Amino acid sequence: MAKSENNEVMFGARGRVGNLVVFKNFGKDQTVISRLRRKVKNPVYTDKQENVKYKFKEAVIYAKGIVGDPDLLAFYQKFAKPGTSAYNLALADFCKVPEIRLIDTDNYVGQIGDKIRVRAIDNFRVMEVKVSIHDASDTLLEAGLATLSANSVDWFYETIVANGNLAGTKVTAEATDVPGNTISETVII
């Protein structure tokens, strides 16, 4: 693949030349010259490839849906750079789940009002973080939503139930992004 920028001879050229190369335009002044793709007749896909294709179809449906929603469209347009669109960004957001980098239980000693810190990130925005606390026998002690801190990365959950026995306590954090992708992580104290 070759890139041609500000080339007056190739400016605006696009399409196929014989069965050899294809000219594609990206952005305002970039022409990409690449080899013509060969189509495989009757391709056989693995289960993993089928799952990726299905996920991509869902992402396309989501991205088309945001174009009709003025609020979401404005949200993604804030991040758009030249050569990308809100549609492309929504597609990318749908395909990437958020990450939970840290569940900090150092300040949790089993008292009411203790704070548990969760560091959750996403390529655009984490919408909410839910925290649940289970005892050693896997009985739910409490659950609720964490609040976003001023740094826009850390979420804090303030406990509302006392826990007299911390040994074996499981703290689970679940992060959700704009398209609704969720991921959960658990730490055992």
UniProtKB/TrEMBL annotation:
It comes from the Bacteria. This is Uncharacterized protein. It comes from Pedobacter polaris.
